Amino acid sequence: MNTWLKIIFVFVLVFSVYHLFRDILQILEVENILTNVFHWQHTWCGAYCNYVSLPPEIGAIVGSVIVLRRDRIGIIGILTLVFPPILLLLTLLLP
Known about the structure:
The chain has one domain. The protein is 74% helix and 0% strand. It has helices spanning 3-27, 33-36, 49-52, 54-70, 74-93. α1 (3-27) packs antiparallel against α4 (54-70) and α4 runs antiparallel to α5. It is elongated and about 40 Å long. The chain starts with a helix and ends with a helix.
């Protein structure tokens, strides 16, 4: 696998772990710099916003680990790279 692709998957892995950790802190109502940076409330999901993002984050973590261990992208790698931009776009477009 290309070095740049490895860097991208490591970045996705680190970001997903951070985001999962931040969401767990928000669910537990812990307020600190990790939970307040780049976070805003959405009206479309209300109290469920923290729970909505848990499955994609876990999927990105598992997908990145599988791709990095196999050293091959395959369908898992494609799905791992396609879903975060889609979720980001939906997050920005939905009120």
